[in-house]
Fold this protein.
Amino acid sequence: MELVRNHILTVTLFTPLAGAVVVMLLNKERIDAIRWVANIFAFAGFLVSLPLVFWFQSAQPGFQFTEEAVWIPSIGARYSLGIDGISLLLVMLTTVLGFVSILSSWTAIQDRVKEYYAFFLVLQTGMLGVFMALDFFLFYVFWEVMLVPMYFLIGIWGGPNKLYAAIKFFLYTLFGSVLMLLGILLLYFSYHTQFGAYTFDIRQLISVNLPLNTQIWVFLAFFVGFAIKVPMFPFHTWLPDAHVEAPTAGSVILAGVLLKMGTYGFVRFSLPLLPGASADSRIVKFMVALSIIAIIYGALVSLMQKDWKKLVAYSSVSHLGFCTLGLFALTPNGIAGSVIQQINHGISTGALFLIVGIVYERRHTREISEYGGLSSVMPVFATIFMIITMSSIGVPALNGFIGEFTILQGTFEVNKAWAGLATIGIVLGAAYMLWLYQRTMFGPITNPKNEKLADLNWREMATLVPLVIWAFWIGLYPKPYFRVLEQPVAQIVQRVRPDYYARRAAPAQPVVVPAQAQVTTEK
Amino acid sequence: MFNEFFSRQDLLLIKPAVLLALFGCGILLTDLLHERRYKYLNAVTALLGLGFTGVQLALIQRAMSAAGYSEVSGFSGGLVVDGFALYFNWIFLIATAIAILFSVRYLEVENEHHGEYYALMLFSLVGMYFLATAMDLITLFIGLETMALSVYVLAGFLRGDRRSNEAAMKYFLLGAFSSGILAYGFSLLFGLAGSTNLRAVADALAARPSGDPVVYLALITTATGLLFKVAAVPFHQWAPDAYEGAPTSITGFMSTAPKAAAFAFLLRVFLVPLAPVRAAWEGLLVAVCVLTMVVGNLAAISQNNTKRLFAYSSISHVGYMLLGLVAGNETGLKGISVYLLVYVFMNLGIFTVLVALRRKDIIGDEIEDLSGLFFKNPVSAVFMLIFLLSLAGIPPTAGFLGKYFIFLSLIETRHYVLAVIAVAFVAVALYYYFRLVVMMFMREATDPERLNISPGVGVALAITLAMTLVIGIYPEPFIRLAAGSVLVPFR
């Protein structure tokens, strides 16, 4: 048990990769065997990550389940993994969505099945690595590795314009990440000049002391890498292409997990490592402005879409705008809300892409005008779609409300106008989602092709139900989520705005909620 | 036999070259004895020769480390074996061995299996040996010509093929022209120093007043000659034509071992005799680097012939490597060493696959010829993908490590703008490398002809892939090796 506990992150990280290896060894003719193996490994990946939830100590500051191994001593790169509350949530999101999307591909993928699952499982390992790495070099390796399988998923199993979308996705993100690499190297080199040692460990790099000007340059280098991934407003053009062309499962992962790497990058690296630049009023205004533009622009463009999937894709731009807005409010509520909203977006947009995928598999079109009145032939489907729509809009009792409300609360503390502008996005969000729902689900069936559509089968239910349950859980009882986020968020705020807690004359340290988990600790 | 002109140490230092030359001559003789179907024995002889040379190098290395010497010199300082020379010689040997492995099948398909081919490869290695070890202008020049003449002939080895002849002719004419310019530069250096010894030249240049026009003239002519040899822009025009026309196996060879040798030569000259006038050549080199990256990468985008594409790609890699020299600090020079090592493996890997594509009536050097490779031979397509990712510098392949050191050295020396240009072209390069990936994985095969992987090609693929991955995933020992090869300027 002790061994598993000490290496749980490694086990979680490499389970999908092991699955990929097994899939590659299977004969490509045995399609069902391949499907079973891939699904079993994906589910196993989720199961092995589950103990993290129970063993995690919310009250304990810093990283947990850390693993250290020497890797490349001469440049100071180490194999070091660890998670805090923020990465815990994202790791869980990844393992859940990874399983859900692999399950959703059962019938959707008919050709080159073997490669499909192999790439998907490799992708899964890459994403988990990004959220677990505490070493910048290791982080960068995972960050880049993941591009290759995603390129193939879009480029081979995508829609008509797949090659263009795939290479655009790859080039955009690669360009961002190599610039980020320069930022990392600058930080690494500055640490060496100040402390005489080479390290990529972010827990040590945090002590490097950079002049504001340098910090801003490094921030901008990181910004390009992360903002392209998020994607923030002027860098978002790869997203609609990639989303629309990608196969359903690819879109789920792309929206659900890949985009979170950008926001995760900001909260894990930009804010704590470059506190001066992150709190600099020019940078904050810049980031907030881009976020608000993304919120409103993304929503407006969604309103205009005739393609169901494209609508969901642009809604991601808007939702992610909320996440970055919350981050750069630089308040505990803003940041915690942002992380929760990242999870929410993974759940609801992931589910929305599954929903589009389900009707697409039946009708092979995504034109909204082709549909209408589906609720009478697919009642269960319509119900789930309604719940997810509500979750995406941010109706209370569902997850979206919690995230958006907390973000707005956090933003309101700093600047009322920003919060006011962001609410326009919520209104528009309700408009495009409800309008979409109305056009596709309500009214009489105008298109005869829709008359005989089958409702959800058990497998499709199995992909959607966990997400619906999760949406309700966060919506009704978000306390555990805020509790795991409390420590890491407080640390970040302390670092970016050292006077924040002092000035509020509130308890200097965040109130530590005694975690139930403490009872079961350290056997 | 030993006297004051020829010591035991001198013999030790030239033994590897002597062995290579002897084996080369041996192949010429034994070739006459082999029947047509046993011509592969020439390759075995050549590999044996490389093996003996490797043992000899290892012995020198061991003797040096046992005695605690960081360098051994012979012929009154005309030859120096140091970490730099050893490291590069290992690269030459390994690259040539891999090239020999995949040549056998290629020559059989082309029906041009002659012993001279392998003999010439060994003779060119003799030249390379002197390029990495010589400390004397004349010896360097002779080493260069020994290497170059052998490679000219190899480029034209397909006598019946007009393109091969054309390639050899162009390569020879431009090569001779650049050698002329280089010889002129060397003569000026000799004139300034009154000695052909590199260190004496360095002392003489250090003593000249700054801004001396003769120094500039010598510098520019020497640098032009050197940059010609490594195919840096604007002196690169010979490379695409020569690469395209030469037999594919020789293109693979030319783009690795002789290129590494030209680099060793360039580094030696820039870092020893020209080191004192660094200020004068740094700006020039920056311009060449930027041009090389821009032209190499942009020209590669529109190529439809894989050999031309890799010619431009190799030009762009030269741009990256030269950046390490621009930075000029330890990281940068270590970066060049790592980069060359990695580059040799990944590029030879690519050419191994291209050689395997040469079947019956299919020449296999158009991009189209790669289409559907994944369906015909998934293993070689996946290998090719990994080599391409490595060339593009995507971790965890070895190519990333080379770029990593280069970028780091630029950051360390505050060449921020250069660093941004360099990383931007990583994305451009990925675009043209992935054109091949699209062909291999997303197109149907155009010809039904199967790929047949001969044992030599198989071994070459296994070695190159293993090294590309091992250096990428566990680079520590290789970084240490490269660190030992750094040429401290003006030592």
Summary: Chain B has a mean pLDDT of 91. The two ends of chain B are 32 Å apart (CA to CA).
